[in-house]
Specification:
Length: about 100
């Protein structure tokens, strides 16, 4: 059975896959660094990271530190839950929409 946070991660991955975005979920146990966002990716030269939460879940101080460091380095960082998952789709549409020339 999937946890609520796993369901959010699955929705985020579907959005990213539908847009053809390169991304991965870094391992944090053992050799990884704690606080790293759940999903890290790059799309058309733009680095981004997504921390997924469920319900009223909030980021830890360590997660906030990592998200801030990403933003300071020029990347985009999201905290996504069930209620705002469309923000990611909107960001992709707003920043990477292709303009199709009109025929005629």
């Amino acid at each position: 059975m999937s946890t609520p946070e796993t369901k959010v991660k699955q929705r985020v991955r579907k959005i990213l896959d539908d847009h053809g975005v390169y991304c991965f979920m870094p391992a944090t146990g053992g050799y990884g660094r704690s606080g790293i966002p759940d999903i890290v990716g790059c799309y058309k030269g733009f680095f981004f990271a997504v921390e997924c939460k469920a319900g009223r879940g909030t980021t830890t101080a360590l997660q906030e530190k990592e998200l801030r460091k990403i933003r300071e380095a020029g990347g985009t960082a999201f905290v996504i839950n069930e209620t705002n998952v469309e923000e990611l789709s909107q960001w992709l549409r707003d920043n990477f929409a292709m303009t199709v020339p009109k025929k005629g």
